[in-house]
Design brief:
It contains 13 helices and no strands. With 298 residues, the protein is mainly alpha-helical. Residues 1-22 form the signal peptide.
Amino acid sequence: MDGLSTAASIVAVLQLAGTVLNCLNSVRNAPKELEKVFGEISSITGALFLMQTQAERAQQDQEGAGMLFTAVRSLSTPGGPLEQFKAALKTLASKFSPVGAVKKLSRTLAWPFEKSEIAELLLSLERLKSYFMLALQSDSLYLSRETKGAVNDLSEAVESLRLGKDDQECRRILNWLNTADMEQKHQDVFSLYQEGTCSWFLGSDAVDAWLGGEGNHMLWCPGDPGAGKTVMTSVVIEHVKAKFPDEETVVAMACCHLNDPDANTSISIISSLVKQLAIHGDTLHREVHELYHKMTKG
């Protein structure tokens, strides 16, 4: 299915979802279950709006349409999640209208579901929502990987723009802070990422809570050596960058390696983080200049 067909299918489902949401909003003496159903459908609708945009972009970019947004298009295959969601919406609509379509609604409607029915419906909606969200995340990571080569080629030019080509002092200060290129190390690890993996982790409740600032601020990921923790961490870093793209947000990282004990010291880790924070923006922070001159004079 091409981008235009995918977008058209999504539009049809969005229209049906809007009708069902209007019905749910008109229910009198609404039970708590209705709020959950309303929330799940609203969340899926939001994801579908993003999917519609991506599908339309894929159609406009004919050269990249065949390889981009693969995960999103896969959801619109016959019998796929998009059709399943449409079927669930039709079931909801039929409950509010004996003819299977909502035509004329009174101001208030009765809640037509038994608890067992709504429990099964909620499970289905939650599962479908996870499919749509993971598809969007998968495409975002794929795009990040596709642009990795261009980012590496332009890294020196970007650094020159930030620091100024003739600003040798800034370069000296950055090298004094830490000589390691943490971004390059991260990109080397991320190049090992295989498309379609790690989606289960990015869509987990633990990651959602961590990104939302809920509970513990540490996302702990234990595992045996060689299990893929480093690559998974690199994928999370790219996910965070994509989720918070504004210039006021800085994503800093520190990597510890068993075979590089010098990089595992507290001084090395802190100086690496300071370097990454210092380089953010058009110029180095004044405090970094002052610290450099204070520590190196005499």
